[in-house]
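B., you asked whether I could sanity-check this one before it goes into the benchmark set. Here's the sequence:
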Amino acid sequence: MPVSKEVLDQVALSQAEYDLIVQRLGRDPNYLEVGLFGSLWSEHCGYKHSKLLLREFPSQSPRLLVMPGAENAGVVDIGDGLAVVMKVESHNHPSAVEPFQGAATGVGGIVRDIFTMGARPIALLNSLRFGPLDNPQNRYLFGGVVGGISWYGNCIGVPDVGGEVCFSSSYAGNPLVNAMCVGLVERDKLMRSRASGIGNLLILVGADTGRDGIHGASGLASRTFEEEREMRPTVQVGNPFLEKVLIEACLEMAATGYLVAMQDLGAAGLTSSVIESAAKGGVGVTIDVARVPRREEGMTPYEVMLSESQERMLVVVSQEHEQDVVKVFQKWDLESSVIGRVTDDGLVRIFEGETLVASLPIDILTDPPLYRLKGVPPSYLEETRGFDMESLSLPPEGAGPVLLRLLSSPNIASKEWVYRQYDHQVQTNTLQGPGGDAAVLRVKGTRKAIALSNDGNGRYCYLDPFVGGAIAVAEACRNLACVGAEPLALTDCLNFGNPERLEVYYQLEECIRGMAQACRALDVPVISGNVSLYNETRGEAVWPTPMVGGLGLLEESERQCATAFRDGGDVVLLLGASQVRGDASSLGGSEYLEVVHGRVAGVPSINLDMEVRVQRLCRRAIGEGLLKSAHDCSDGGLAVALAESCIAGGIGFKGACAVGGRWDAALFGEAQSRIVVSVASGDIPRFRALAREQGVPWVELGRVGGDRLTWDGLLDVPLESLEAAWRGGLEKALTR
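And here's what the prediction gave me:
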């Protein structure tokens, strides 16, 4: 019997998709089967509008151990028999509905993606976007999300070592909450999620199953918000203390060799974990939902299969090791239940006791239709690209007050209010924590360290999706270069509006093209990621916001750099430019343009060839011990980068370089491919030779020293004023 439009809407299936299901099955599916299709054909699980585009990303590397998409997370070899496992995912819609639990369970979910592969989670990062803080609802969302992240991460003992927080009216009502996790594993102990072995057991371990999270994948993650729609029941509820026990039990279990496969229960719960594991192994499965432990009475098979209750794992075990596995879980006070078996018929058959309640071919369930649309450039681009930057008047108050104003802007100001709530030293690996260009963690038992960054600028992508996507990749890698790390791999989370709207689809495809071009230029693969679409509220899409997480490697951990100026008399250089000249075009998409002039306009640009050379020079100079500091020149431009290095080092700067063109563009323009470094005066000849070898222009800006940031005729601001503006900006915005 055909299902109603209301049921299809509930599971985010179109009528055309339902008709395709009927055609492929040769019959109408029942209510439970429709729910299974709705989840597995959802945008969140099936990537209907993005999979064809994502093939643009380069994914080849001699270090790559798992092909992208083949497992829960990406894996790269870092030598010494070790591998890094990494991934980022979104929990945007749940966080908009219930910010504390939405963000907390986002952390829990991404951590499970890591330890399900046998890797110990060693670091968390997060990328957050909210509406302006002068709105009480945005302040509530911001506080709730930060609270949820800190609560969950601190309880499970995984350090939160980096991230970014940005604010724009674009994200009002639809915050972006992207969580990234990194794990470490011995490469020969890597776990897989492919179910295999006819007759092997499916064992569910962890929390009991409740009604929380039902329709999370097909509802919250695969459609837009509407005011009248109440979605609070679809938000999961987390228990980090149980997750901590699961981490230890599953890692112990993975080391025993008893497991055939392991898979976490995330989006779509049992439905996705069981069926996707079977699909990867080319097998079938039977499940008895009556054997699933429950915490609520009267749950239907539909509710059990689609529940997204947290802290649950699925393991595939041979019958001979059933009791061995149960004993390990009992040791950790974890309940485990045999809920099914691996079969050879390619079907998922779901029973409730003796009653068969669903039977479907797995290959149809995991083969959603893929859409390739023809995007249309958004109409607003004509206005934003045509804006005349030269028509902007210079601020009458001068550069000093403008610098203080930018430093206190919530997008640039210190995020200490956020990260001081996180434990970033637990596990005792953190060499550089939050607040710098990239985090640095030692790899115990080796001389190595890994560097981690995450970046993305929705404003750039709004103005030019292709260039903005390229800049997101370039900046993530540039931040790794600033600590001396060689980029190895990227993970990404693509946050966009409704892809069925051709203007949004244009943004998505152009961003991916730009990101892919930058990846090829920088020779770094995308090894994992997530797509979060339908980020809209009342018909208004968020800015196209790709978040890029970067992994870098330092072969020797002591050969690292930080942002802080260190010693008086050191020479400060700007890499990537031969002079300091204010070109009005560099104001396009800048924080200065929005904060001071109230405009989001212009066209950002990047020279990827220069980017490659600048990053290579920075890494080489750090590796040879030539740089005292290095800091990415990005949001807020050159003056902000200088101020941040002064604040970090507690020492001033004396500029002595001629400035041409517009002083506002020279100081606050956001031209790309630039890094501010400091060098001991005696090392300038060696640095000059290295820069010449790498073909990188540079200009001497001035010297480190004193207790002020000065630049003849342009700037003269006490260090204490810079620090007060920067450290107090975010908290001031929260108390308005």
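One thing to flag: The domain at 50-190+428-559 is CATH 3.30.1330.10 (60s Ribosomal Protein L30; Chain: A;). Otherwise nothing jumped out at me.
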